Amino acid sequence: MSRVAYVNGRYVPRRSAMVHIEDRGYQFADGAYEVCEVFRGALIDEKRHFERLAYSLGELQIVPPLCTGGLAIVVREIMARNKIENGFVYVQVTRGVAPRDHVFPRPAVRPSLVVTARQVNPEKGELQARNGVSVITTPDLRWKRADIKSISLLPNVLARQLARESGAYEAWLVDSSDMITEGAASNAWIVSENDTIVTRHLDHSILRGITRTTLIEIIAAQGLKLVERKFSLDEALTAREAFITGATALIMPVVRINGKKIGQGIPGPITLKLRAIFHDIAARST
Ligand code: PLP
To answer: Distance between CA 152 and CA 29 in Å, rounded?
Structure first.
């Protein structure tokens, strides 16, 4: 089946979907994006993804190209035209097309909007979750506004490449005080003594993951203990369990960090339980 993309008001065959060379996304990575999971034909946590997109665009002073209702229609149309049952929708907004100049174009130009979707086989993720994945650590080289879901991802790209070359699934980023911030494309979590679940508190050094937000609600509903604070690599290495969260990984057990086994070196019971119930509780919209 040929895939369809939405580009600036038009549904076009994906193979011929183009943006202009002077799009500021291409020139300056001047834009923001969202990745929303599609599970059994439904969008997961759509409202939160749209809210975060609005936040990112607000911080970047980019006017949303469509109202939330309009974007919701485009996203559904892209899901339908690509027959997505399980997979992801990708939404990218840039400041638009203008002659190359660092300062914002004046008068403002129309922001660019691209929406695409991809089908995945959910079995692949389930298999990975049964075995657990490895992570490596690398210095966090990103800018000081990681709370904005910016399309400027070069440090994340390099970190993920390093992970791939090391045979790992994800790279955990380490700040200048040897504390873990988050993964290159996920939030980082550990389960410490007394089964306390720990993840870094929100500030400008991490992304407010939508999976993270929903999981925090699930943890509370399950009566589990959660502390939002910094944790070090040393603490992670001696944790009972570790895992990552993200729209693509969902809740993915981490069984090795830098080659060292976490706990027994198999997915932990708390992690697996949270993964098993995630889709029952996360908001679904069709
Ligand atoms: N942190 C970073 C740097 C990410 O890129 C992502 C997702 O892509 C996340 C965390 C997890 O966010 P979400 O749960 O909204 O997918």
So the answer is: 5
φ/ψ bin of 195: left (φ > 0), alpha (ψ from -120 to 50), beta (otherwise) = left
Contacting residues for 110 by C-beta, under 8 A, at least 6 apart? 8, 65, 96
- CA-nearest of 266, 238, 268, 242 to 254 is 242
- If one residue of 45, 187, 215, 251 were mutated to test the ligand 1 pocket, choosing by the most ligand atoms within 8 A of its CB, it would be 187
The confidence band for 2, taking pLDDT boundaries of 50, 70 and 90, is confident
Distance CA 79, CA 284 (A): 14
Q: Of all helices (H) and strands (E), which one includes residue 105?
A: none
User: Is 149 known to be catalytic?
Assistant: yes
181 lines ligand 1 (CB under 6 A): no
pLDDT tens string 230-286: 999 999 999 999 999 999 999 999 999 999 999 999 999 999 999 999 999 999 999
Token pair in block for residue 17: 């979907």
Helix (H) or strand (E) holding 280: helix 269-281
CA angle 69, 66, 245 (to 5 degrees): 75
Question: What are 61's two structure tokens?
Answer: 């002073």
Which pair of tokens denotes residue 70?
């309009």
Q: Considering the entire predicted model, what is its pTM?
A: 0.97
